[in-house]
Amino acid sequence: MTKFSVNDRPVEYRMDPETPLLWALRDASNLTGTKYGCGTGDCGACTVDIDGEAIRSCLVTIAECEGRFVTTIEGLSRDRSHPVQQAWVAEQVPQCGFCQSGMIMTAAALLRKNSNPGDAEIDAAMTNICRCGTYPRIRAAIRLAGRVLRGEERIAAAPPPGIRPEDAARAVPALRPPPGR
Length: 181
Ligand code: FES
Ligand code: FES
Description:
With 181 residues, the chain is α+β, with helices and mostly antiparallel strands. It is built from six helices and five strands. 33% of the residues lie in helices and 12% in strands. Strand 3 and strand 4 form a beta hairpin. The protein is globular, with a radius of gyration of 17 Å. Mean pLDDT is 90; it is low at 168-181.
């Protein structure tokens, strides 16, 4: 049995200790915001925060997480109010979105250590892959989030306060086929 904290809650996984953290989060905890891209540590789609570091969860076993504090995209904020999330919305970063939770978790870890990273520091930290090529908007959003964290700027178009992700998902109208199909 492996015990650690996920999004500030204690968890015990009755799984093979060699199970990658990514699978425990997605399959046992239903935290599917963390994505499976490559499984080899190359793409960064599976990035979570472990004790303040951006870590690729496909490369970490749950045994290695014993006693540690894991935060996933679902735990970054309760209401999507984290400055990085707000900046991502303001800069309209995502395209398909698959890479984005990993990008956000990596950016949040970077800004926690350095709220004013230069271009070289951003590029060095953001080694995640975006197949849609959103890199310029990612850099812009990181700079904006940094200004917010430093108190230099506020984001006007913040997500509605207090909204829960499950409520937001319900509020999205179902996609309907175009007329005539
Ligand atoms: S799925 Fe972990 S780095 Fe790609
Ligand atoms: S937004 Fe599509 S992979 Fe990054």
